[in-house]
Amino acid sequence: MALELVIITGMSGAGKSTALKMFEDNAYYCVDNLPVLLIPQFIELTLEKNNQINRVALGIDVRNGENLSKLEDILETIKKKNFFMRILFLDSNDEVLVKRFKETRRAHPLSPDGRIDDGIKLERQKLTFLKKSADIIIDTSYLLTRELKAELDKIFVNKKEFKNLQITILSFGFKNGIPTDSDLVFDVRFIPNPFYIEELKTKTGLDKEVRDYCMSFEVAGKFVDKLSDMLDFLIPNYIIEGKNQLVISIGCTGGKHRSVTIATEIYQRLIKKEGYAVKLKHRDVNKEGK
């Protein structure tokens, strides 16, 4: 039997435990925090003819201490063996990681008695080589646990193609501030505002009547076409550049009508593109105001 090996690594708090549980549920032999220096011997034992283990997931992270620096050479050595190996790197932005550590009241492994921020900064430095050599990078900043499990299931169980770019289409209202994690921001306040139509005022872009009103204007359709064309150019180049998270923010005044409509239109076009992981979020749709 051919061996399939998955190295699960990444930032502390980014979801490695969740990932290992998913692999375990799908009949992978899982080992968390195996000492780096024992990996070659472990692989040799697994490759023995009488061994029935054919799928292995190893959790490797900064808890290996100074020996982590030896992992790069070890991985190069075991890549020469006759089996299939992939490196899965789970990441998340610093703000989310700090929040997760505070919510769970855990200390960061590299800063047990100090600031979480310092531990995260040091960890990023130590894991740079692993992220660069990763086959799959998943940013879990805005993924629910079930969404992460679904993404991993799609890649490793259903064997669907994965591209290391997660796209979030985010509607918002300028009066509530521009989303701080935006990569691209587009202002659609040039489209007539349904808020001033009495029968549409209390509805949102989630309602067909509002969407139909917004898209009835030629300028709205042209904008969606032109933005879609630009994204068709940008996204493949972001993938080549190695970007793994893209937040496209679309704003109107209150984030309830026009931005929701246009964000939905862009989302519907992008999900038809093969290989893109696309999510749609409406930050301000339930807030009071126009």
UniProtKB/TrEMBL annotation:
GO terms for molecular function: ATP binding; GTP binding. Residues 2-162 form the AAA+ ATPase domain. GTP binds at D61, V62, R63, N64. This is UPF0042 nucleotide-binding protein. ATP binds at G10, M11, S12, G13, A14, G15, K16, S17. Pfam families: PapZ_C, RapZ-like_N. It comes from the Bacteria. Keywords: ATP-binding, GTP-binding, Nucleotide-binding. It comes from Acetitomaculum ruminis DSM 5522. The keyword Lipid biosynthesis does not apply. HAMAP family: RapZ_like. SUPFAM superfamilies: P-loop containing nucleoside triphosphate hydrolases. The keyword Nucleotide-binding applies.
